[in-house]
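Appendix C reproduces, verbatim, an entry submitted by the partner laboratory led by Prof. M.T., so that reviewers can inspect both the input and the predicted structure.
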Amino acid sequence: MNSIFLKLIGAHFLITIIIIMVMGLAINDITYFLVSIFSCFLYFISGYKLTNEKSNWINYFGVCVIGIFLWVICFALSPDSTNYKRNTEAGLWFFYKLYVMVNSPLNFIESLNEPYNLRRELLILFVTPFTISLFQYLGGRLKNKKFE
């Protein structure tokens, strides 16, 4: 296992903490969009900064592998709802949504009244770790171009 794999997973957790802190600024749709763009930028930068040598593309998808593994566990235990706020059966989805905080920092604001759609929510939660890893890969790929 390459060290870039572990570094990018560590960067993911650091970015999650930063997003939790910045989430207080996301009080409407515009600031939510800005926080989402900011988090994508952070993932791109993490891939760029943590790449010190040419690395195989698979090393950039550690966040994706862990995310999909956690998604499958959560779905197996609670396939009927991801809405942990209103359904006590969906408790593990809280931890998964914490793992993919960049998906929607507003998930943790109780006063938000957005319509709940299980299929859309499951799809978004499944694709989010791939998107995170893709931004890290693109940052690392840009840096890899300098090594060629």
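The chain has five helices and no strands. Additional entries are available on request from the coordinating office.
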